[in-house]
């Protein structure tokens, strides 16, 4: 600030991540965007939340504090799927854990308010975005109210917030009060009542949850807060849904926080209606009562156009961590430092994934020229660059420029996925723009190789064999990771994922094109354990499939219920929000107990002797003792290898052997093998 001649900042951004000036890090992108609009931006990265002093380090902002937990939800960042504390943090220098608090958005917001009372506090990022309405919280095992109330913030920006944050900054700079700014798309705020002139629709008219029994209907009366000191009970009139109405002045009332926290069927119903109102082309405003106040959600933001996205990614980023961190390595930056984002959004709609809830279903793609310019910038300005681009991708590697063929159909569509249960006939699956981009990128002078590391949607890829040939021949570094997630129809339906036959078709193309290219390459499949809708028999069938195909998985991903996801609604309620909620219907199989979740993970690692006792016990319980034995048709052997301690005891010693000194040539060779924790991350252990 001194070097720039600033006496104050207009906007101060507070983030739970270490600061990396790279467009893959949200604070760098938002900071550069506001800077390009003429605002003076300061960033406080990973402040000491135990004291207010860190939040005063840049002085009082003229416009607002912008608060985010960072690129990851702080609870996902801290805890595994088994609620165990993680030992590291990829977004902190040196991977050091404990540099941000639990529920960082709430803590940072309260500290910002304490540092400078009266300054507007705006929350955003993925943690705020996924908690914008009443939501099930896995770590406390209860339904929590909107994070906007807990953080005591003035406004919540959800999803990709570029349009919202720029409009907000300009309106505040023009003298408008934060209390009057209530119409920006992609924002949520608290209000006392539904404004005049709005048509209010009961969510049960949008999607019937079945008869609501054993409680008073929450849709007949309500309480409107008349002032801060008093409230009056008044009837609230809900209109029958008219045949024609102005969607821009229509609001859908979700069941209130008190209702969804006490009724699991209503929670699943609210989740379903919420997801049906996420298309920017037809989404209506939503309102949800929290106590005496109303939570108001404006419709989702309008996606950025190609020229806007190009400009966003071509700001003068230094593409490296802040110099204050010295030589400490930032693991998250190390992973993406030579990668190039080419698009955002995902229309896959996988129920366990947070990408769609945060970035939306409409694909936003950069221009080919913009991507090429960034590769050239990377080549010419980063001394450590060796000529290998580690990734050209985004949330999904091969959705670049794929979208609905008709804008009118796209704006009216209410499907949760464009590719489930089958690929929509209105969806363009032409991969030729991506093939042209790949070819142009690898032909650049100084570029040795362009790899593809983002997740691949293989059910789309098989529609264009020319793309698969191009990918396999030139852009696979020996291994290609894909995610079939399961083999059984029941769990796959709850995930909204394609059947295993789509994987088989892709594998045939992958193997054929690898042979034609004269390369030995392998597919690395990913699977999820303990997903809602998965029975023990489903996991057993998956385990047998893995054995038949000789897959010995190192990495195991256990389902982690993140806020707002449809799979999380299944986990909490036992209902299926992919269909209309009907009381009295059979409940979903939901693996919740620690023992069952561990069994499902053990079945994915059927080859690990440590899992054999648990698997044998489960096989006997399921009446499948025929799978215990020493033949090829058996899943696990009847015998158990001795542990190292048992081996020592059988030899009459409990102490480890004394090894000869290093350099003597007599030390035994040791190897390392990869093992996996409950969160799916790879660790190390001695063989």
Describe this structure in words.
This protein is an alpha/beta fold and 687 residues long. It folds into four domains: 1-186, Cobalamin-binding domain (Rossmann fold, 3-Layer(aba) Sandwich); 197-296, no CATH class; 338-475, Transcription Regulator spoIIAA (2-Layer Sandwich); 479-575 and 582-649, 2-Layer Sandwich (Transcription Regulator spoIIAA). The protein contains 24 helices and 25 strands. It has a ten-stranded mixed β-sheet, sandwiched between helices.
Layout of helices and strands:
Blueprint: E1 11-15, H1 26-36, E2 41-45, E3 64-68, H2 74-78, H3 104-115, E4 121-123, H4 125-129, E5 135-137, E6 142-144, H5 147-151, E7 155-157, H6 162-173, E8 187-191, E9 199-202, H7 203-206, E10 221-225, E11 231-235, E12 250-254, H8 257-262, H9 264-276, E13 285-290, E14 293-297, H10 306-313, H11 331-336, E15 339-341, E16 343-344, H12 355-359, E17 364-365, H13 368-381, E18 388-389, E19 391-393, H14 407-412, H15 432-442, E20 449-450, H16 458-461, H17 465-474, E21 479-485, H18 489-495, H19 500-516, E22 522-529, H20 536-548, E23 557-558, H21 566-573, H22 594-604, H23 612-621, H24 644-650, E24 672-676, E25 682-686
Parallel strand pairs: 1-2, 1-3, 3-4, 4-7, 9-12, 12-13, 15-19, 18-20, 21-22, 22-23
Antiparallel strand pairs: 5-6, 7-8, 8-14, 10-11, 13-14, 16-17, 24-25
Helix pairs in contact: 9-21, 13-15, 15-17, 17-19, 20-22
């Amino acid at each position: 600030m001194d070097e720039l001649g600033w006496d104050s900042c207009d906007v101060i951004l507070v983030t739970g991540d270490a600061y990396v000036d790279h467009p893959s890090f949200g604070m760098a992108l938002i900071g550069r965007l506001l800077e390009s609009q003429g605002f003076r931006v300061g960033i406080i990265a990973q402040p000491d939340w135990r004291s207010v002093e860190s939040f005063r380090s840049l002085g009082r902002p003229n416009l607002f504090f912008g608060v985010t937990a960072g690129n990851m939800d702080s609870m996902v960042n801290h805890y595994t799927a088994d609620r165990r504390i993680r030992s590291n943090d990829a977004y902190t220098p040196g991977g050091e854990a404990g540099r941000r608090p639990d529920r960082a958005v709430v803590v940072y917001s309260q500290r910002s308010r304490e540092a400078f009372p009266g300054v507007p506090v705006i929350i955003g990022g993925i943690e705020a975005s996924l908690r914008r309405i009443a939501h099930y919280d896995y770590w406390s095992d209860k339904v929590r109210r909107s994070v906007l109330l807990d953080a005591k913030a003035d406004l919540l920006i959800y999803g990709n917030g570029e349009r919202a944050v720029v409009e907000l900054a300009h309106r505040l700079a023009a003298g408008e009060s934060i209390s009057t700014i209530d119409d920006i798309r992609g924002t949520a705020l608290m209000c006392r009542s539904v404004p005049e002139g709005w048509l209010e629709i009961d969510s049960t008219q949008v999607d019937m949850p079945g008869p609501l029994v054993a409680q008073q209907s929450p849709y007949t009366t309500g309480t409107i807060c008349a002032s801060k000191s008093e409230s009056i009970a008044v009837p609230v009139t809900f209109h029958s849904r008219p045949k024609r109405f102005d969607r821009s002045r229509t609001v859908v009332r979700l069941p209130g926080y008190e209702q969804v926290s006490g009724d699991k069927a209503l929670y699943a119903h609210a989740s379903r209606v919420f997801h049906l109102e996420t298309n920017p082309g037809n989404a209506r405003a939503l309102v949800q009562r929290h106590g005496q106040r109303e939570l108001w959600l404006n419709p989702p933001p309008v996606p950025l156009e190609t020229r806007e996205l190009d400009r966003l990614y071509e700001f003068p980023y230094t593409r490296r961590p802040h110099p204050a961190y010295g030589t400490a390595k930032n693991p998250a930056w190390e992973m993406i430092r030579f990668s190039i984002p080419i698009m955002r959004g995902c229309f896959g709609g996988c129920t366990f994934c947070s990408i769609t809830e945060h970035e939306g279903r409409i694909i936003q793609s950069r221009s080919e020229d913009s991507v090429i310019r960034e590769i050239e910038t990377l080549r010419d300005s980063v001394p450590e660059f060796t000529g290998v681009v580690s990734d050209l991708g985004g949330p999904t590697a091969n959705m670049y420029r794929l979208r609905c063929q008709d804008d009118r159909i796209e704006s009216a569509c209410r499907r949760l996925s464009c590719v489930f249960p089958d690929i929509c006939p209105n969806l363009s699956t032409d991969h030729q723009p991506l093939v042209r981009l790949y070819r142009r990128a690898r032909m650049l002078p100084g570029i040795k190789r362009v790899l593809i590391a983002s997740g691949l949607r293989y059910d789309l890829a098989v529609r264009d064999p020319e793309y698969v040939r191009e990918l396999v021949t030139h852009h696979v570094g020996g291994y290609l990771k894909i995610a079939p997630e399961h083999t059984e129809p029941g769990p796959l339906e709850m995930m909204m994922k394609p059947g295993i036959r789509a994987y088989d078709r892709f594998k045939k193309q992958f193997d054929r094109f690898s042979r034609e290219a004269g390369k030995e390459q392998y597919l690395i499949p990913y699977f999820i354990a303990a997903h809602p809708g998965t029975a023990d028999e489903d996991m057993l069938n998956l385990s047998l499939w893995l054995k038949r195909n000789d897959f010995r998985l190192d990495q195991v991903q256990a389902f982690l219920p993140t806020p707002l996801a449809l799979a999380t609604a299944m986990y909490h309620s036992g209902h299926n929000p992919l269909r209309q909620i009907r009381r009295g219907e059979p409940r979903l199989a939901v693996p919740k107990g620690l023992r069952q979740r561990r069994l499902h993970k053990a079945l994915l690692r059927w080859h690990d002797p440590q899992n054999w006792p648990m698997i044998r016990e489960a096989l006997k319980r399921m009446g499948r003792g025929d799978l215990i034995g020493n033949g090829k048709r058996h899943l696990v052997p009847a015998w158990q290898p001795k542990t190292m301690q048992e081996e020592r005891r059988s030899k009459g010693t409990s102490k480890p052997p004394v090894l000869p000194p290093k350099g003597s040539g007599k030390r035994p060779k040791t190897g390392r093998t990869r093992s996996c924790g409950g969160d799916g991350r790879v660790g190390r252990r001695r063989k």
